[in-house]
What we know:
Blueprint: H1 3-24, H2 31-53, H3 57-70, H4 74-86, H5 91-103, H6 109-133, H7 146-149, H8 152-187, H9 197-233, E1 241-246, E2 253-258
Antiparallel strand pairs: 1-2
Helix pairs in contact: 1-2, 1-4, 2-3, 3-4, 4-5, 5-6, 8-9
Amino acid sequence: MTRRDRTSLVRVSAFAAALAILSAAPSARADDEVDATTLRVERLADQAFANVERGAFAEALALYMQAIEVAPSSAIAFDIAWLYDHHLGSPALALDYYRRAVAAPDVTDELAARARGRIKALEAAQEARTLAASPATPARGPNADRGASWSPLRTWALFTGGTGLVALGVGAAFAIVAKNKDDQAGRYCDGDRCSDARALTLTDEATSAATVANVAIVTGAVLVAGGVTLWLIAPKRGAVDVSVRASAGAPSFVLGGTLP
Length: 260
């Protein structure tokens, strides 16, 4: 705003305030009382503008506040809004006083248009600040809910089933070893009689391997079945406390836990 604009605005403020006082004054009010109030508003407005000219914006605001208390007017409200807007860094207060200026009964079309223009600009800036301060919402892909729906029970199901598959593989390997040992022992036997020491040794090894194979295969089958069961009963959400522990002395596993 140019110096000429500001001077015109301050003069309008003073005269608008004086007009408001004169129109509101009862007929019984003495002319000298009205003149004194008018002069006071004019002095406050002039002093406020002088402070604006020298950069003393806080002092100017205080004087404008006194003037608007004495004689509220749209022009003084606009001056206060302008100070908050351009010099005091208070957009919220600037919005408030621009709205007061527009709502004042003595507002002119020109002043109302200027105030509305600043209201629109300040509201847009306020909305932009609000959006900038809000946390960004990440884009959700087709698998966005997969992590939230994955239950710990399904983790245990995969672990149990995987362990069972490993046990089945071990059992199959030992079964092959047992079969090979038994075939080798048969070469040293005469029918059902095996008196050769090598045959006896191979037979013992075959028997041991077969025992391990049986245990591993049975354990693997149990674990795979348990993994499948856990997977089927697992909820989509919820915390599950499940423990898997081997029972002493037997090829079995105990599954413990509570479902939510």
